[in-house]
Amino acid sequence: MGKLSKLTPIISIFCIFFFIYHIIITVSSSTPPRYIAVEDITLDCGSETSGESEGMDGRYWSGDFQSKFFPKEEHNLESVTIQTPIERTVIAPYTTARVSYSQFTYVFPLTVGSKFVRLHFYPASYSGFQESEDIFTVKAGSFTLLRNFSASNHGDTMRKNIVKEFCIYVDEVNKKLNITFVPFSDTTSSNFYAFINGIEIVSMPKDLYYSPEGQTRSETPYDSKSHRFYINYNMALQMVFRLNVGGSLILPAEDTGFFREWSEDINYFVHESYFNGESVVLHNPSLMPNYSKIENYTATDDVYRSARTGDYLDWELPVDSGFNYLVRLHFCEIGLEVSLISQRSFQIEIDNNSAKDDADVIWLTGNRDTPIYKDYVVLSKEEKVEDNNKILSIEIYTNHIYPSAILNGVELFKIINPEGPEHNLARPSPASSANNPKTNKTIFLAIGSLGFLVVLTSLSYMVQLKKFTCWSDPYRGKSQRAKALSLPEELCRHFSLNEIRTATNNFHKELIIGQGGFGNVYKGLLDEGTLTVAIKRLNPESQQGAREFKTEIRMLSQLRHVHLVSLIGYCIDEGEMILVYGYMRNGTLSARLFDTNNDPLTWKQRLEICLGAERGLHYLHTGMKNPIIHRDVKTTNILLDEKWVSKVSDFGLSKMGLNNTAVSTLVKGTWGYLDPDYARRQQLTDKSDVYSFGVVMFEVLCGRKALNTKLEHEQWHLANWARKCIEKGTIDQIIDPYLKGKIAPECFKVYVEVAESCVRDQGIQRPKMNDVMEKLEFAFELQQNADAAQEEINPSGVISYQDVLSFRVVEPVLESDSCIELTTSNSELTNPSLDSDGITSTV
Ligand SMILES: *[C@@H]1O[C@H](CO)[C@@H](O)[C@H](O)[C@H]1NC(C)=O
Ligand SMILES: *[C@@H]1O[C@H](CO)[C@@H](O)[C@H](O)[C@H]1NC(C)=O
Ligand SMILES: *[C@@H]1O[C@H](CO)[C@@H](O)[C@H](O)[C@H]1NC(C)=O
Ligand SMILES: *[C@@H]1O[C@H](CO)[C@@H](O)[C@H](O)[C@H]1NC(C)=O
Fold it and tell me: Where, by residue number, does the polypeptide cross the bilayer (predicted)?
């Protein structure tokens, strides 16, 4: 009885478990299942009653003795029905067992199709049988489901019941399934017995897991790129793990109609980190998944409502060696910040082999909240050894520095081949491009199809297509993982620190062309001197820098526009973070305006520069699905190439907003350019960029810096001062002296009106970038027309306009100045070194 007392705690936990189970089932069984199974057989083995007993999942279990499935006449009734001892509180099908020293068979007449077969065991000391001598084999049709199985020796956990789940296809020829229990026998002893407590058979759609040739969905060949593997109807599957990643246990009654159980993944989740250091559980309990890519019964909503994310995630699953495995990974993008292609892309490695190089859930599904799954097959390389444990690992990790990987669910099945000489380890069959009716839902075959081109913007298509083709060598081994951060070479090159050192003459002082809070910018020569580049070396100390570095790469790898600076590549080596851009011969707009060594820019040049920067910003705000807010528009971030084409740069602070919503964030930006509305409410909108751009327009017009503390106090803040001057009708007095007489009055009026509207106090009073662009284009046209008219009158003379530039803006009524107060005691603001150049501050 010592054994009994040891068992007692286990038993009580078991009872409590069932009790809770019962309650949950009663509560949750109200919603109808997504899938109604044609066959839903629940057989309570060993029960001689003709009635039914309510079971653990709310279903009723009927006794096997009275049922048509137990051919009594063919058995010599050596098998006995026994009440489960002690644990009288357990419920069906565990209250009774069929136990026998000799083999016995159940015969289930079934419809043609795929079926779940679940075998329920409750190891206990059944009277007349030695508990430890339950060693037996279970066969179903031509499959050996369990070989030399011992429930009592199953070495399990707190839960005492054991459920073994299989998928088996019932064909037209047999239309039935024989399930046979064969006790182990050897010459020395015949004390071994077999037992079973319950058998469940539930039909399923035939292609839920099967993928016979011609309709495979396990489209990713596992160990060879030229082969595919099909889960044919002549194979059986044994479920080994079904995990709700990042979520909690999902009970059979809560499944979509198949009575599958989904476990927590926590016991198998091994987390290591290489770059960002964190793995995060995402949970969105109110999510209503959009089942546009997969059937809505594939998994319960709860599987997709939770996920783990991180830069490196690892699950280690103990399996038997010598078998092939089917791995199904469930994905659904539920991260709030992710809605675009390439915001989250990662690698998948299964059993130490690269399975997918550039997984991107949004790319696969086209949308957030849209579940999808991917099937992979792991082919065994080992000799078949029963019960010889090995670890099958599933690792997902980012190959880029910025996004993290995501996983919502895992299903792992052992592939069981039928008995017989002709079927041993099934080998993959050659791929055929012709078979894919269902696969067009997935990405590999969709590449190149016109349908996809229509759906996606051609830009992101290009980015992705290149990614897919450029990833040739899968990174192996953990030490290399930290290095595996590259973007596709053609789009964004990865330089070694040595290359950068050579390019900049070991970061020679004389090559410094810019400086800022982030570090220095060097001029450099790459590709044997044929390519001039700007090399931005981030200050390694700054933590802030690391995040902005990543943001910049993320933004620039997605964005291509003639008025946005182009990223050539980057270097992340020995703790250095370096970005490499195309070299902009004519430097920053700021230097062109304020550095007296440079020739002054003409008015038309200035208009063109503004227009270009405006177009770049307009593209940011509207060119992608969700607007991107630059957050740091200023003259030092507008660069000029050799043809004076302006390009917006420095995306380190950029934010991707969701459509039409303000983004709540810590206020960041540069004094003098900072939107007062944003500073007050901390709500970032595209109108914040409009404000900063208005400031740039005034700098361009006046030749004054956005913030100049050397001036009289009321003139420090250019935008505020310009508004006051406009109000007083004296704006003509503060324009750049060089521009006097060069600006056509009609152009001036439009320009000033638009600039003034941009720097209005509240975001809603300001125009959209689009309106700014139209007005600026109009102003440019007016200037050109006026210049042409002047030239007609006086073909060789210098163009000059009368000083008729003064006007007052009367509409709308300006409010009292509620702009951010710059006279506060913030000591930083009186620091003379703080001018508008290159200083980013956090308010
Ligand atoms: C089954 O188990 C018995 C007892 O542990 C063992 O002797 C026998 O070799 C096993 N048979 C197989 C096929 O593994
Ligand atoms: C199934 O079992 C029945 C009864 O034992 C037997 O007659 C029949 O041949 C078996 N069928 C198969 C396919 O094993
Ligand atoms: C599941 O999808 C089927 C069609 O594919 C649809 O008829 C059914 O209403 C859906 N069920 C739910 C609960 O959305
Ligand atoms: C997978 O790789 C890890 C680390 O490189 C190693 O420890 C492990 O043994 C490998 N596993 C297999 C199955 O090869």
Answer: 7-25, 443-463
- The rounded mean pLDDT for the chain is 76
Q: Report whether 295 contacts 205 (CB < 8 A).
A: yes
Distance CA 533, CA 523 (A): 6
User: Who's near 508: CB < 8 A, 6+ residues apart?
Assistant: 522
The verdict on 617 and 694 lying in the same domain is yes
Query: How many angstroms separate the CA atoms of 772 and 704, rounded?
Result: 21
Q: What share of the chain is helix, strand, coil (3-state, %, to 5)?
A: 25, 25, 45
Instruction: Report the binding-site residues.
Output: 536
CATH number for position 740: 1.10.510.10
How many residues in total does the chain contain?
843
Q: Is 418 near ligand 2, meaning CB less than 6 Å away?
A: no
Query: Which of 52-61, 117-126, 615-624, 640-649 has the weakest average pLDDT?
Result: 52-61
pLDDT at position 589 is: 94
Q: Higher model confidence: residue 606 or residue 434?
A: 606
CA atoms within 13 Å, Cβ hemisphere of 11: 17
The region, left, alpha or beta by phi > 0 then psi within -120 to 50, assigned to residue 204 is beta
- pLDDT tens per residue, range 673-692: 888 887 777 677 889 899 99
Residue with tokens 């137990």: 70
Whether residues 216 and 197 share a domain: the answer is: no
pLDDT in tens, 241-283: 999 999 999 999 899 999 999 999 988 998 654 444 467 889 9
**Global model pTM greater than 0.85:** no
Q: Residue 610: inside a domain, yes or no?
A: yes
What are 573-602's pLDDT values in tens digits?
777 888 888 899 998 999 999 988 888 999
**Closest ligand 1 atom to the C-alpha of 386?**
14
Question: Mind listing the pLDDT tens digit for each residue in 363-399?
Answer: 888 889 999 998 888 887 766 655 567 889 998 887 5
Nearest ligand to the C-alpha atom of residue 384:
1
| DSSP per-residue codes, 453-479 | HHHS-HHHHHHHHHHHHH--S---SHH
| Pocket of ligand 2 contains residue 109 by CB under 6 Å | no
Burial class (CB in 10 A: 0-12, 13-18, 19+), 536: buried
**835 in catalytic set:** no
Q: Which tokens hold the place of 489?
A: 């070479």
**Catalytic residue among 358, 632, 675, 761, which?**
632
Burial letters for 13-24: b for 16+ Cβ neighbours within 10 Å, e otherwise?
Answer: ebeebbeebbeb
Q: Give residue 505's domain range.
A: 485-582
Claim to verify: residue 164 and residue 218 sit in the same structural domain: no
Residues with CB under 6 A from ligand 4: 351-352, 477
pLDDT of residue 400: 56
Q: In terms of domains, do 494 and 425 share one?
A: no
Could you give the number of structural domains in the chain?
4
Pocket of ligand 1 (CB under 6 A): 135, 148, 184, 386
How far is residue 261's CA from residue 163's CA, in Å, rounded to a whole number?
10
pLDDT of residue 646: 94
598-636 burial, b at 16+ Cβ within 10 Å, e below that, comes to eeebebeebbbbbbbbbbbbbbbbebbebbbbbbbbbbb
Domain boundary among 161, 184, 203: 203
Beta bridge partners of 243: 263, 410
